[in-house]
Every structure is written in C-alpha cells, then in structure tokens.
Design goal:
It is built from one helix and five strands, in the order ββαβββ. It has one helix at 19-25, and strands spanning 7-9, 16-18, 34-35, 42-43, 49-51.
Length: 57
C-alpha cells in the first residue's frame, strides 16, 4: 500500500490511489488532472472530479 501521506481517494470509485501512480496515469504531467488507475476517472489534487470514470460501478 502507498504511503498515506502520498495518497488521495478517487471521488468516483472511492479507491485509495497513490499520487505517484495517478500522476503516471496522467502521462507524468504534474499539472494535469490525476487519473484513477481503477476506474479511469480524472480528478484534481483536491479531489474534485474533472471527468467521469471510464467504467461504471
């Protein structure tokens, strides 16, 4: 499991996501929205949903 200080909860599927993994899914761009590796939702670092998940619940 990722370091709790370096995680965020996906606002779409509620999975705990490591920030490093989410940034990697966003193409490594530190300014880009994060992407959940579980559902594909995009969200800001404050947890605001930017785009809907790629898969449903």
């Amino acid at each position: 499991m990722a370091d709790p200080e370096n995680t965020i909860r996906c606002p779409a599927c509620s999975q705990v996501v490591g920030l490093d993994e989410a940034v990697a899914k966003a193409g490594g761009d530190e300014a880009a929205p994060l992407t959940c590796p579980t559902c594909g939702a995009g969200f800001d670092r404050d947890g605001t949903l930017v785009h809907e998940p790629a898969i449903g619940p």
